[in-house]
Structure formats: structure tokens, C-alpha cells
């Protein structure tokens, strides 16, 4: 069989064996080389192309592995019989416009986003040291599949941490680690009764709301009153599972008083199938008050599922969250037997080292003071710039607060002008779960300050005023 192959021997060309492989593959797919026909021997083709036998052999071995050739002992290599494609039309190499991502360079933007942490002040060197120590100490662990709930020693470290800082009562066996709260929430919906009716705070966490809806769950929304989620509405709507953020209501920012917490726990205890999911997403940061114990710490009937994350206290990109399952749900989880751990083993072990070395608490203490000072400067700048035309709510905890403005512009108009000013900010409507709810009289924005650089505070506030008033 006469095969014509032209090779490119320039420095920028592919390796010789790759060119031979590609040329032969194209000849087979285009039917220029017929099924079961014999291709030249390795030595014969090498001499013809003036290349090494090794180059031809590498090409033949790749074609053999992919199924374009087959070998017969003492006879050589032959072209495999391949079915023709049902369509001769070549697939388009371009992506449809509606699926393309538009990259926006935000290097000159100022961010009031609530979704991030201050990476400039993260102790990266300390974290890397913990990773190195963890890898050196537990390198054999990295070669094994992690326990579905997470490495036991890591769960033990988290247990001690949340007992000390949040008053959470549990054992390491009750903790399930996962790569994000949404991953754990999806798992949790499979443990809870399939016909369970869920309820969420309004306004609330839209991604969680959408996740529940997409999994076919019935989700009710319950408005807030002066103490948090309305207990009278809970009783009236009668859900089975209640999702709440008592330590720092998301996004309104209120801290739920103990009187309302006791009411919620009593409601849950009335029926054995009721549960409260406590989303404790940024409880590390309280400013004008001491840390408030978790709702779970008051639970006497094992009705609270505690969910925590390290996304706010460390870095969102590390993807470490966890939940504490009551014994009955833990029993159901252990019966499943098919779950795999979604969080990196190295990240887990590094977290354990970070906690047990004292670096975590050191970091939290430092960041609590840093965020407190940044928050105070930001609020002072807002009050000075807006001069009584602004109301700040929920500012004594977490990494964001809510601002209401006295302006004739709507929230959507403000957001559009903010984008034109290269200002990243989000409105309260983003967190309204039911679009049919009546809109408030005054536009409200969520002001996050974790990613905000201190040198950008004044300019960011000036841009915000122009977005709100145009001046």
C-alpha cells in the first residue's frame, strides 16, 4: 500500500510521531485506507519518511490503542473496520451566542459585594505551612478515599471549635463535611421525608430557594417581623422543615433574640417530623456584642440541623462547609452507603492543622477587628455623604448591612447607574423569593465590605451617591 505523508520538520511543528498518527487517522476516516488493508511495516514506513522506527511505532501504538488499527501476530498492522458516521455534516466548532461568556475586566471597579472575603488579609503563608505540615504528616491519607463524612480527625477539630465558639453540642460522628452549603443541602433533602414542606425567610437566600424548587420540593416563604422570621406565619403555614439564619438574618441582617429562638424550638418539638435548618453562615463576626450561641445549643429535642461554613471566615474558594445531623437523620445517612466525600482531603487536613495550631482563632480575632474598623469607616462615610438621606440596618454583625435611600430613583435605576459607575453592588430585590410580594417604598441595597479596599471607601461612596441621585 502506497501512503503519501508529508511531514513538517520545523521547530514549531508537532512531534513527528504525532504528525504520522494524525495523517494515518485522517486517511482511515476518509476511507482512503480501506478496512482490513495492511499498512506498511514500521521499518518500511520509517525508511520512506526518513524518520526513526520509534516515531512510527509510537504512531502505530496510539492508533492501535484508539482502535483505528489492529495487529495480527507475525503479519503486521491492519486497518480496522469502522462504521460510517450517520451524518457527514461536520460539527460546528463555534459555541452558540447565548452560551458564550462575556468577560468583564473589573480591575477598575469598586466592590460592595456581599459574597466574598478579604483575600488581602488572609494569612496565606500560614495556610501554606499548614498544608505542608498536613501533607508531610498524613501523606498516606491522600492516597486513600476519604470517609464519606470527611476525615474523622478533621471532624473532631471542627467539633471542638464550634463547641467553644458557638456552643454547638455534637460528636464528630454527627458532622458531614462537603464542598459548599448547596452540596450539603441537596444531600439533606434526600435524608428528610420526600413529601416534606419547606419554609424559608422572606427575603432570603435565593440560591437555596431555587435548589429546593428544582428538586421538586414545595417551598413556602415567611415574612420577617421585628424579631426575625414570624412565628405566627410559621404556625399558619405549617411547614415540616424551616430554614433560618438566626445569628445574622440573610440578607436583612437582624439578630434573632432568645425569645423567638425558644418559640421556634417549641414549635419544632410539637411534632417528631419537624426540623429546623440553622444556616450559620457568618457567625464569627459580631462587632458591638459578644458572640451569640447557636440556636442548636438550646435544642433539647434534636430538631435542629446546624450548618456552618468556612467561606466567610477563610476563603470561599476553599469550599469547606459542614452540617451537624441529629441522631435520627445520621442513622438514615449511614444506611445510604453510596456517598463520596466532595471536599479535598488535603484541604481538610490543612484546615485541621490551621485550627489545632491556633492560627484559625488568631486569624478570626485579627479579621474581626479589621472588619469592625472598615465597617465603621464605611458607615461614617455613607452618613457624611448622604446626610440623613440614608438608613443603615443590620450593621452589628457579619460582612454586609442593608441601606435604604430617600430618592426618587428605583432600585433597578440605581443598580444600572452603579454599573455605569463601575460599582459592584446588589439590591434587595435579588433576595425576594416571591416576586408577587409588594415592593417597599424606599429602594434598599446590600452593602458588603469584605472585598472593599480601605483606600476605595470614599470613592466608592461618591460613586454610590451619583448612582442614587445622579450628582
From TrEMBL:
Cofactor(s), names only, from the UniProt record: pyridoxal 5'-phosphate
Positions of the HTH gntR-type domain: 14-82
GO molecular function: transaminase activity
One Pfam family from the record: GntR
Protein's UniProt keywords contain Transcription regulation: yes
Taxonomic superkingdom: Bacteria
Entries under SUPFAM superfamilies matching the protein: PLP-dependent transferases, Winged helix' DNA-binding domain
Swiss-Prot/TrEMBL keywords: Aminotransferase, DNA-binding, Pyridoxal phosphate, Transcription, Transcription regulation, Transferase
Entries under SMART domains matching the protein: HTH_GNTR (SM00345)
Recorded family membership: In the C-terminal section; belongs to the class-I pyridoxal-phosphate-dependent aminotransferase family.
Name of the protein this chain belongs to: Aspartate aminotransferase
Amino acid at each position: 500500500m502506497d501512503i503519501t505523508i508529508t511531514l513538517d520538520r520545523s521547530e514549531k511543528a508537532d512531534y513527528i510521531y504525532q504528525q504520522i498518527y494524525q495523517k494515518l487517522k485522517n486517511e482511515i476516516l476518509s476511507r482512503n485506507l480501506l478496512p482490513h488493508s495492511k499498512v506498511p511495516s514500521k521499518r518500511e514506513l520509517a525508511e520512506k519518511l526518513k524518520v526513526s522506527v520509534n516515531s512510527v511505532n509510537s504512531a502505530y501504538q496510539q492508533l492501535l490503542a484508539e482502535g483505528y488499527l489492529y495487529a495480527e501476530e507475525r503479519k503486521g498492522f491492519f486497518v480496522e473496520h469502522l462504521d460510517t458516521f450517520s451524518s457527514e455534516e461536520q460539527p460546528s466548532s463555534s459555541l452558540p451566542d447565548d452560551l458564550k461568556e462575556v468577560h468583564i475586566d473589573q480591575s477598575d471597579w469598586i466592590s460592595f459585594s456581599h459574597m466574598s472575603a478579604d483575600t488581602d488579609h488572609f494569612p496565606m503563608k500560614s495556610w501554606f505551612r499548614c498544608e505542608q505540615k498536613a501533607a508531610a504528616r498524613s501523606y498516606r491519607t491522600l492516597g486513600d478515599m476519604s470517609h464519606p463524612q470527611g476525615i474523622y480527625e478533621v471532624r473532631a477539630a471542627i467539633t471542638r471549635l464550634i463547641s467553644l465558639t458557638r456552643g454547638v453540642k455534637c460528636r464528630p460522628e454527627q458532622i458531614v463535611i462537603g464542598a459548599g452549603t448547596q452540596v450539603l443541602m441537596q444531600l439533606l433533602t434526600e435524608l428528610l421525608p420526600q413529601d416534606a414542606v419547606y419554609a424559608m425567610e422572606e427575603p432570603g437566600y435565593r440560591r437555596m430557594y431555587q435548589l429546593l424548587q428544582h428538586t421538586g420540593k414545595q417551598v413556602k416563604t415567611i415574612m420577617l417581623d421585628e424579631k426575625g422570621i414570624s412565628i405566627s406565619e410559621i404556625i399558619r403555614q405549617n411547614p415540616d422543615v424551616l430554614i433560618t439564619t438566626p445569628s445574622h438574618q440573610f440578607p436583612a441582617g437582624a439578630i434573632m433574640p432568645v425569645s423567638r429562638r425558644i418559640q421556634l424550638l417549641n414549635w419544632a418539638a410539637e411534632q417528631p417530623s419537624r426540623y429546623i435548618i440553622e444556616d450559620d453562615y457568618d457567625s464569627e463576626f459580631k462587632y458591638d456584642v459578644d458572640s451569640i450561641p447557636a440556636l442548636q445549643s438550646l435544642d433539647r429535642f434534636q430538631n435542629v440541623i446546624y450548618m456552618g461554613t468556612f467561606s466567610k471566615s477563610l476563603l470561599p474558594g476553599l469550599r469547606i462547609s459542614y452540617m451537624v445531623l441529629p441522631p435520627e437523620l445520621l442513622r438514615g445517612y449511614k444506611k445510604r452507603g453510596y456517598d463520596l466525600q466532595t471536599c479535598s482531603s488535603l484541604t481538610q487536613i490543612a484546615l485541621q492543622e490551621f485550627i489545632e495550631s491556633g492560627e484559625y482563632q488568631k486569624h478570626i480575632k485579627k479579621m474581626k477587628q479589621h472588619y469592625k474598623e472598615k465597617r465603621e469607616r464605611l458607615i461614617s462615610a455613607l452618613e457624611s455623604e448622604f446626610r440623613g438621606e440614608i438608613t443603615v440596618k443590620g450593621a452589628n454583625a457579619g460582612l454586609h448591612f442593608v441601606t435604604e435611600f430617600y430618592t426618587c430613583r428605583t432600585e433597578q435605576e440605581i443598580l444600572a447607574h452603579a454599573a455605569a459607575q463601575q460599582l459592584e453592588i446588589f439590591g434587595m430585590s435579588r433576595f425576594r423569593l416571591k416576586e408577587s410580594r409588594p415592593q417597599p417604598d424606599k429602594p434598599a441595597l446590600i452593602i458588603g465590605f469584605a472585598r472593599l479596599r480601605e483606600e476605595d471607601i470614599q470613592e466608592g461612596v461618591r460613586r454610590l451617591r451619583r448612582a442614587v441621585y445622579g450628582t
